[in-house]
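Changelog note: in this version the structure field was regenerated for every chain. One regenerated record is shown below for reference.
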Amino acid sequence: MDKSWTEILEVMSYVVQIVGLPGAIYLFLMEQAKERLAEQQEIDGQLKEQYNHILDNLIEHPELDHHEAPLTGDQAKQQQRIYQELISCFETAFIRLYGRKNASLGRMWNSWQDGIDEWLREPNFSTSLPKLLVGEDEHFAEYMLQRSEEIKVAAASTRPAHDDAPEGPALP
């Protein structure tokens, strides 16, 4: 080979090093991010299946779907078991999704937060919360207790000022 071909090949090798290597690293990192997101979506789907199973149990056993007044006996035990399953589901979602910067994961978390808030409005569930959170992730337990308080404060601020006012949702 003459000198000009050697120089051309040398320049091309520099171009590959300068452009190709960073490009390959970028593509690798993007692929890794896609795989992590797909894994998170799969886990979210499994959690939603578990959550739907819990709701199906409540449909099959409507006597357990009373959350305003305490149940007694076996019904109370069964309801507490359902609440434990809910806490397990919510905790996994919290650990996997809460505070993530990814927009897709944020949307998944918002969906779970809506479900958590709905359950925290149920008196039996919120009353059982301290007992249900024993042994759970410390940050999750803190989040749940704080969220429970926020919901109680919000509910208290929407109640009518007079005791003789009719109960019901606040009008906009």
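Spot check on this record: The chain has five helices and no strands. The radius of gyration is 26 Å.
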